[in-house]
């Protein structure tokens, strides 16, 4: 078999969808699930968790800036997906998140998009600190729709309307948004979890970064805090190749179709949803979010 044929065969395998506990993921993740589930977290690890396209990369960069006392050069030492690997990710042609995580010296900062019940048990056993960031459903679905166009292995929809239907049905990689945000919300009072909202971060980044500082038991000067706010702003991060996935292999993410950091504006869903789509989405949302104390703002 030629090298090109082998690569093509591996790529087809990677694109194949397999379910784990009813959650669609890639075949490569499925095949490696025992290793992922048995991953050994450490008490001094920090885990950043979110549903896809909810702001985890933003929080990652903020945390790295905090850990490096605002030293921009140190934060640009390598790509963000290497600095803080996505533990369950097993892509073609680059190291898996597990491989990267296991090679890292402590203390490690790691990332996950897993539902709370799918997180490796060692994180709970060691009471590892977790920062969870949630974004309102409407902006998440629009952002995820654009993102899916850039990543060949993600399930596609020809239209936003089709994508919204899949989103409401929970037929998404990493599962249902509703189950995701509610599951982590319910866990936050039983574990060391800081639950943040994307909309709050956009409205008052200083306040939310101070919450992170307190959670991490860090104290930084006003000067360094201002530096972190500036360098983790959307416009600056969008220009940062170590944070915007600009160096990611094109066969995994093609940003000529849509940038990884596209708009980042709460309420952008209004430019995409039709009146009918919005009404249907709201009706479904009320049913799925009934009984939870968790609330979101769809604009600021």
From TrEMBL:
Q: GO molecular function of the protein, one example?
A: sulfotransferase activity
Q: Which UniProt keywords apply?
A: Cytoplasm, Transferase
Q: Tell me the enzyme class.
A: transferase
Q: Which SUPFAM superfamilies match?
A: P-loop containing nucleoside triphosphate hydrolases
Q: Would I find Ligase among this entry's keywords?
A: no
All copies of the Sulfotransferase domain together span 43-292
Does the keyword Repeat belong to this entry? Answer: no
Q: Where in the cell is it found?
A: Cytoplasm
Q: Name one GO cellular component term.
A: cytoplasm
The protein's matches in InterPro entries, at most eight in alphabetical order, are given as: P-loop_NTPase, Sulfotransferase_dom
Pfam families in the cross-refs: Sulfotransfer_1
Q: Write down the EC number.
A: 2.8.2.-
Member of which family?
Belongs to the sulfotransferase 1 family.
Protein name (database record): Sulfotransferase
Which species is this record about?
Sarcophilus harrisii (Tasmanian devil)
Its taxonomic placement starts with: Eukaryota, Metazoa, Chordata, Craniata, Vertebrata
List the gene name: LOC100920558
């Amino acid at each position: 078999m030629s090298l090109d044929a082998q690569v093509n065969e591996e790529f087809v395998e990677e694109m194949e969808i397999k379910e784990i506990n009813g959650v669609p993921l890639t075949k490569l993740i499925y095949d490696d699930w025992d290793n992922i589930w048995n991953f050994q977290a450490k008490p001094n690890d920090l885990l950043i968790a979110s549903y896809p396209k909810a702001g985890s990369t933003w929080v990652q960069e903020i945390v790295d800036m905090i850990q490096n006392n605002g030293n921009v050069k140190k934060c640009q030492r390598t790509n963000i997906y290497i600095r803080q690997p996505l533990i369950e990710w097993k892509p073609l042609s680059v190291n898996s998140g597990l491989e990267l995580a296991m090679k890292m010296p402590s203390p490690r900062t790691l990332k996950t998009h897993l539902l709370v019940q799918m997180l490796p048990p060692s994180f709970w056993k060691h009471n590892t600190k977790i920062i969870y960031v949630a974004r309102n459903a409407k902006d998440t679905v629009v952002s995820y729709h654009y993102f899916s166009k850039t990543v060949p292995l993600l399930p596609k929809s020809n239209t936003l309307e089709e994508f919204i239907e899949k989103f409401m049905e929970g037929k998404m990689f990493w599962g249902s948004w509703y189950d995701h945000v509610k599951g982590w919300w319910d866990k936050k009072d039983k574990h060391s979890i800081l639950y943040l909202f994307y909309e709050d971060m956009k409205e008052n980044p200083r306040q939310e970064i101070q919450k992170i500082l307190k959670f991490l038991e860090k104290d930084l000067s006003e000067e360094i805090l201002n530096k972190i706010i500036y360098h983790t702003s959307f416009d600056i991060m969008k220009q940062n190749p170590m944070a915007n996935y600009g160096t990611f292999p094109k066969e995994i993410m093609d940003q000529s179709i849509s940038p990884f950091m596209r708009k980042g504006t709460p309420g952008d869903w209004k430019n995409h949803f039709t009146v009918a789509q919005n009404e249907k989405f709201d009706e479904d949302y009320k049913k799925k979010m009934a009984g939870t104390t968790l609330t979101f703002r769809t604009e600021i």
